[in-house]
Amino acid sequence: MAADIYCELDAAGISYRMIESRGVLAYVDGRRGDNGRCVVLYADEYYWDKVLCLTTSLATDADFEGRLYVFFPSDKFAGALAASLFDSHDVVAAVMPTENFSLKQGEVLFCPGKMQASRDVLRVKITPEQVGGATIANNHVVSALSELALRVDSFGGEDCRVLLNDVEAKAEYYPVPHCADFRATIYCLKEGVRESVRSMILGAVAELQYKYDVAVEATVIPCEPCVENDLQLTYEAMLYAREEGYVVHDGDAEFSSHPFGYVAEHYPSLMYYCGVGDHTDCRELAAVIVKNILNK
After folding, report:
1. What is the extent of the structural domain holding 6?
2. Phi, psi of 106, deg, nearest 5
3. How far apart are CA 69 and CA 46, in angstroms?
4. Residues 54 and 194: beta-carbon distance below 8 Å
5. 197, 221, 245: which is the final residue of a domain?
6. Distance between CA 36 and CA 220 in Å, rounded?
7. In sequence order, what are the beta bridge partners of 29?
8. Rounded to whole angstroms, how far apart are CA atoms 191 and 159?
9. Are residues 158 and 210 both part of a single domain?
């Protein structure tokens, strides 16, 4: 596959470079504007040919500002390793093809991805107030851990997902655990929900400290962005596509993971899925992606 990409990029006169252990990074510069602003297209192994076709069509289109990056990963984990490639750029959007095979020629799907959500990391450590006494023997540490984990897990809803990642209880010199910790990831699609979940977590921590006579150290590490400001760009592009005569499908927001999610972990960027029914739509799709997002 890599050899084919090199040949296609060379034939189209598109600049690129090999990123060791990650993949191939191609780029197309607009004829005007700030080339520090960029859109990133992700081409996985199933869609690299379609994204390559889109890239070659853009190489001859001068009507956009900034720079278009196209990343062809060497494997499914390479996207997660490539965050540093764009540290010096203002990444205004990240786009990848969709796996929706029902699209017909002339149809476009816009689907906000999980990566648009805020992604906060919750870290909790529970220890007894007094080491070596009855607090250890009565297993309050494990009781507090269990109840807090269940509460945090229940905070999810339509606009929020809470995923428990690691739960561990430690026992070194005592027959029962003397300390415990767990980590959770909180995805929120609305800023108000995000603040509400944080408040509920801190409230539960305060209540359980008193109930079980334990010390609970809870830290919420915020990872931007929140989705609300970015959604407007998606819908502006959708309206443009409708005006151009496309059948536009508005997909539901998703929480599914993808290795290219590093974009939202490091930048206040937009990520959504675009699908087209046929390669002949590539030039028009490029106009939707680049001219109505990058030029904003």
Report:
1. 2-116+227-294
2. 85, 5
3. 18
4. no
5. 221
6. 32
7. 67
8. 10
9. yes
Is 194 in the same domain as 231?
Answer: no
Question: Position 265: which residue type?
Answer: E
pLDDT in tens, 20-63: 767 888 888 876 666 667 777 767 665 666 677 767 777 776 66
Distance of alpha carbon 79 from its chain centroid, rounded?
Answer: 11
Instruction: Say if residue 109 is in the same domain as residue 204.
Output: no
**Together in a domain, 70 and 98:** yes
Q: Are residues 6 and 103 in the same domain?
A: yes
**Is-contact 79 262, C-beta < 8 A?**
yes
Provide the whole-model pTM: 0.48
Best mean pLDDT range from 118-122, 180-184, 264-268: 180-184
* CATH number where 242 lies: 3.40.630.10
The length of the chain, given as a count of residues: 296
State the CATH number of the domain containing residue 187. 3.30.70.360
pLDDT one-digit tens code per residue, 190-246: 667 778 888 888 899 889 888 888 888 888 887 654 433 344 555 566 666 677 666
Question: Can you tell me which residue has the tokens 């029962």?
Answer: 176
**% of the chain surpassing 70 pLDDT:** 44
Query: What does the DSSP assignment read for the chain?
Result: -HHHHHHHHHHHT-EEEEETTTEEEEEEE-SBS-TTEEEEEE--TTTHHHHHHHHHHHTT----BSEEEEEEESSTTHHHH-GGGGTTSEEEEEEEE---TTPPTTEEEEEE-GGGSEEEEEEEEEEESSTTSHHHHTTHHHHHHHHHHHHHHHT-BTTEEEEEEEEEEE-SSSSS-SEEEEEEEEEESSHHHHHHHHHHHHHHHHHHHHHHTEEEEEEEE-----SHHHHHHHHHHHHHHHHTT-EEEEPPP-----GGGHHHHHS--EEEEEEESSGGGHHHHHIIIIIIIIT-
Out of 221, 239, 274, a domain closes at 221
